[in-house]
C-alpha cells in the first residue's frame, strides 16, 4: 500500500538527520584528535614517527571508506566484539577523517615560514613552546578553509553508513521513498536538510577566516 | 672571563667544510665586526654560536655555557645569546608588544607585569615606545627590524649577534637600524655583527675580523684593519668589496 508523503514522513526524514549530525560530530572529534596527533607525528623531528604517520595517511587514503566501514563492522563483530552499527560507523568515519585532517594540518604546519621556527628557537623556546605559541596559531589560519571543506564532505559522506543499517538522513529518505514513491518530495527534503546542515558550517568558516585575517592588520 | 669563547670550531655541510678551525674571543662590552666575501662562512659562524647549526669539532662557550659536538646545554646557552637576522621574522599573529613579551614569559617564566616592563624598556631602547600595540605587518622594514632587536633585548642577553641586519632594507631605512645598534654599543652591549657596512664597522667596532675561506684570516682593531690591511686577500677585499 502506498502511503502519501505527509507531515509524519517529512518529520521522520528531518529527525533522522540527528544520526547524520551525531556521526559527523563523533567522527570529527575522534578523527580530529587522531588527525592532530598524525599531523604532529608527520612534522616530527623523529624519522620513525614521520614514517609511521605517512604510512597511516597513505594507507587510509588508499582504502575506500566503504571498506573501512565493512572492516570495522563485520571485522570486529567476527572478532567477537558486538558493536552497534552507529559505533562501527563512527569508528570507521573517524579513522577516515584522521588521515585527511592529518594531511591537511600537516600541510598547514609546513606552510608556516621556516624562519618562524628559527626565530623562536633562537629565543630559546622548546619544541613544544614553538608549536604552542608560534607555529600552530599561524597554521590554524591556513587550516580553516581546507578543514571546513573537508567537514562538509564528511557530512555528505556519512550517507555511506546506511549500508550497515544506520538509518541516517540518506537511508531515511530511501525508506520513505520506497513507501511513498514521491521521489521529488522525499529527496528534495533530504537534499534541503543536508544543505541546512552544511550551509552554516561554510558560513561560519568564512566569518572565522575573515576575523583571523583582520586581526593581524587591524 | 670572556663572554664568547670559540675554540677550533669546524663545521661541514656534507663533504664541504665551511668553518676550518675558528678561534675567537669576545670580551664584555666589545663590539666585533665580521667582514668577508659571500660564502666565507660569516653567517654559519654566528649560527653556530647560538647552536642553530651543530659543530663537528672544537667548542663554543658563551657566559659559562659550553656547547660542543654533542649539542647539550643548547637552550641554556640561547637564553644568553640574542640573534637578529637579515629577515626580521617577527611573529605575524602577535602585536609588537606580544612579540617581545612572549619569550621572557614562556622561556624565562617572567610574570606578566615584568614582561611588559621589559618589553616597554626594550622598545624604548630601539626608539619605538609608541608602537607597542601595532601589528608587525603595519610597520616599515626598518621598524620591524628594530622590533626584532627589541625582542632579543627583552631576554637580557649577554651578547647580541647581528647577521647583515640592514641588507634587506632600503638605504633610507638602513640608517635608523644602524643608529639603534650604535646606541646599543654605547650602552655597553657586547656585540658580534656580520656586516657589509664598512664605514659603520670601522667606526663602531672595537675589533674587526676578516673571514676568508672558512678561516679567521686577519683580525685586529678596526682602525688598523681597515687602515693598514696586512694580507693581500684583505687588501683585495677592501679594494673591491666596498660598496
Ligand atoms: N644549510 C646549508 N647547507 C649547505 N651548505 C650551506 C648551508 N648554509 C651555508 N652553506 C654553505 O656554506 C658556505 C658559507 O655560507 P655562509 O652563509 O656562512 O656565508 P656568508 O659568509 O654568510 O656569505 P654571505 O655574505 O653571502 O651571507 C657557503 O658556501 C654556503 O653555500
Ligand atoms: Mg651570510
UniProtKB/TrEMBL annotation, chain A:
<feature type="transmembrane region" description="Helical">
    <location>
        <begin position="133"/>
        <end position="152"/>
    </location>
</feature>
<feature type="transmembrane region" description="Helical">
    <location>
        <begin position="86"/>
        <end position="105"/>
    </location>
</feature>
<keyword id="KW-0472">Membrane</keyword>
<keyword id="KW-0812">Transmembrane</keyword>
<feature type="transmembrane region" description="Helical">
    <location>
        <begin position="53"/>
        <end position="74"/>
    </location>
</feature>
<dbReference type="InterPro" id="IPR043429">
    <property type="entry name" value="ArtM/GltK/GlnP/TcyL/YhdX-like"/>
</dbReference>
<feature type="domain" description="ABC transmembrane type-1">
    <location>
        <begin position="17"/>
        <end position="205"/>
    </location>
</feature>
<protein>
    <submittedName>
        <fullName>Amino acid ABC transporter permease</fullName>
    </submittedName>
</protein>
<dbReference type="InterPro" id="IPR010065">
    <property type="entry name" value="AA_ABC_transptr_permease_3TM"/>
</dbReference>
<feature type="transmembrane region" description="Helical">
    <location>
        <begin position="20"/>
        <end position="41"/>
    </location>
</feature>
<keyword id="KW-0813">Transport</keyword>
<keyword id="KW-1003">Cell membrane</keyword>
<dbReference type="InterPro" id="IPR035906">
    <property type="entry name" value="MetI-like_sf"/>
</dbReference>
<feature type="transmembrane region" description="Helical">
    <location>
        <begin position="186"/>
        <end position="205"/>
    </location>
</feature>
<dbReference type="Pfam" id="PF00528">
    <property type="entry name" value="BPD_transp_1"/>
</dbReference>
<dbReference type="InterPro" id="IPR000515">
    <property type="entry name" value="MetI-like"/>
</dbReference>
<comment type="similarity">
    <text>Belongs to the binding-protein-dependent transport system permease family. HisMQ subfamily.</text>
</comment>
<keyword id="KW-1133">Transmembrane helix</keyword>
From TrEMBL, chain B:
<feature type="domain" description="ABC transporter">
    <location>
        <begin position="4"/>
        <end position="238"/>
    </location>
</feature>
<dbReference type="InterPro" id="IPR027417">
    <property type="entry name" value="P-loop_NTPase"/>
</dbReference>
<keyword id="KW-0029">Amino-acid transport</keyword>
<dbReference type="InterPro" id="IPR050086">
    <property type="entry name" value="MetN_ABC_transporter-like"/>
</dbReference>
<keyword id="KW-0067">ATP-binding</keyword>
<comment type="similarity">
    <text>Belongs to the ABC transporter superfamily.</text>
</comment>
<keyword id="KW-1003">Cell membrane</keyword>
<dbReference type="GO" id="GO:0005524">
    <property type="term" value="F:ATP binding"/>
</dbReference>
<protein>
    <submittedName>
        <fullName>Amino acid ABC transporter ATP-binding protein</fullName>
    </submittedName>
</protein>
<keyword id="KW-0547">Nucleotide-binding</keyword>
<dbReference type="InterPro" id="IPR017871">
    <property type="entry name" value="ABC_transporter-like_CS"/>
</dbReference>
<dbReference type="InterPro" id="IPR030679">
    <property type="entry name" value="ABC_ATPase_HisP-typ"/>
</dbReference>
<dbReference type="InterPro" id="IPR003439">
    <property type="entry name" value="ABC_transporter-like_ATP-bd"/>
</dbReference>
<keyword id="KW-0813">Transport</keyword>
<dbReference type="Pfam" id="PF00005">
    <property type="entry name" value="ABC_tran"/>
</dbReference>
<dbReference type="InterPro" id="IPR003593">
    <property type="entry name" value="AAA+_ATPase"/>
</dbReference>
<keyword id="KW-0472">Membrane</keyword>
